[in-house]
Amino acid sequence: MKKIGILFGQENSFPQAFIDRINHKAEEGITAEFVNIDKVIQAEGPGYDVIVDRISQSVPFYRGMLRNAAITGTAVINNPFWWSADEKFFNNALAVKLGVPVPNTVLLPSRDMPEDTNGNSFRNLAYPLDWEGIFNYVGFPAYMKPFDGGGWKDVYKLHNPEDFFDKYNQTGRLVMMLQEEIVFEDYFRCYCIGGEHVRIMQYEPRNPHHLRYEHGKAPASDELLAKVKEYVIKLNQFLGYDFNTVEFAIRDGIPYAIDFCNPAPDAERTSVGEENFEWVVETAATYAIERAKSHKPGQDNLTWGKFVKTGSAHTPLLG
């Protein structure tokens, strides 16, 4: 019997609907349940052919358990090794190499020195940094946010250099990135499952959370939607994510990828609305079943992105 599990935290509607949908399909030899962990022993599997990970970004113990599961052959959605290595600034650099428009962005050293370091640890770092060059490249208004963080925690909108230094001095040991503001006329949040199944959702990030998927704008052109879908697939196939969202701000008809490192994206019915919820439940369930059917016991069943497999993001390798 092939067994699919889902590992989750505080969300409510998606995990139960996902399990119910798989079991309702009644595929021969396949069952689904909530993951149950009673012990984690090195190089011993947890008893699941597929695990959908919705929480390990917040619980390091789960991330360690999933890497152990992966080495025994479990197909973990998403790859816990790549998820541990990935961060937003690298994603932006990859997007540039892939020809996907992104806001001008720079990486900043932490305002305060990391623990167990001193001035000698930073002898390769210029002091002061070329702030004028940085500000000229990014421009104002701008956003400053953690280079590896999620959501809106520790995110600042900045209006000028004085505002920047005031907020930067509050960031402590966080490594931040400074990013150009894209003033947009439309905005999309896109699910991508299995590196090929895309759901484009109109989205208004400036609305209250429960109204972000209901901003009532006219549908975008087929040409723009096709370009957004192309970029979504390209980014996810190179990153190697099985389940992710990509956000695009549309400025002057050009889709700029704003955030595309969301491997445990919001899928609650009350957040995304009934139609989007139905799509993500059905698509995720179908994809998990496919992964269970293709599972090879004791082998590597993870998804590895094109960047890792080729070591490059140059145009000849696209497609």
What is the compact description of this entry?
The protein is an alpha/beta fold.
Can you tell me the overall shape? globular
Uncertain spans: 315-319
Main-sheet strand order equals: 2-1-3-4
Tell me, rounded to a whole number, the average pLDDT: 94
The major β-sheet equals: 4 strands, parallel
**Structural class category:** alpha/beta
Regarding quaternary structure, what we see is: single chain
Helical amount: 25-40%
- Rounded to an integer in angstroms, the radius of gyration calculated over CA atoms is 21 Å
SSE series: EHEEHEHHEHEEHEEEHEEHHH
Q: Report the CATH C-level class of the largest domain.
A: Alpha Beta
* CATH architecture label of the largest domain: 3-Layer(aba) Sandwich
Number of helices: 10
Strand content: 15-25%
Number of domains: 3
- Span of the ends, CA to CA: 36 Å
Number of DSSP strand runs: 12
Under CATH, the topology of the largest domain can be stated as: Rossmann fold
Topology diagram in text:
Layout: E1 2-7, H1 13-25, E2 30-34, E3 50-53, H2 60-71, E4 75-77, H3 80-85, H4 88-98, E5 105-108, H5 131-138, E6 142-146, E7 156-158, H6 161-168, E8 176-180, E9 186-193, E10 197-202, H7 222-239, E11 243-251, E12 254-259, H8 269-272, H9 274-294, H10 306-310
Parallel strand pairs: 1-2, 1-3, 3-4
Antiparallel strand pairs: 5-8, 6-7, 6-8, 9-10, 9-11, 11-12
Helix pairs in contact: 1-9
